[in-house]
Write a structure and sequence with these properties.
Elements: E1 2-10, H1 16-32, E2 36-52, E3 55-67, H2 72-81, E4 85-93, H3 102-107
């Protein structure tokens, strides 16, 4: 099992209901692929560094996972198929950092 951090950006105009739906889909897909969610954070609506499809803002979600790298492709496919996901990034880390992250602390 690898320590993975996943960040994805949703379109800013999607509803709170859709946020919950994609969150549930991700949790289900992670567990179906033999992974475990260590922690997650909602970073919320943030300015983008550059416009993506004419959007200047995006809704950020962050997950810390333990999952086998072979099963990570299934998560990436799920995110690629979601029309309201503008970007996503998965990285392998040696250790998960203790949360809350700096992104959450900046909101306070």
């Amino acid at each position: 099992m690898n320590n993975i951090e996943l960040v994805y950006i949703l379109k800013p105009d999607v509803s709170k209901q859709y946020h919950n739906e994609i969150d549930n889909k991700m949790e289900k897909s992670i567990s179906e692929n033999g992974g475990k969610i260590i922690d997650k954070e909602i970073w919320g609506l943030k300015d983008l560094a550059y416009p993506i499809n004419k959007s200047k803002k995006g809704f950020y979600m962050f997950f810390q996972l333990n999952i086998d790298s072979r099963n990570l492709d299934n998560l990436n496919k799920l995110l690629n198929l979601e029309e309201n996901v503008m970007r996503h990034l998965t990285i392998k880390v040696d250790e998960h950092e203790k949360l809350p992250s700096i992104m959450v602390e900046q909101k306070k």
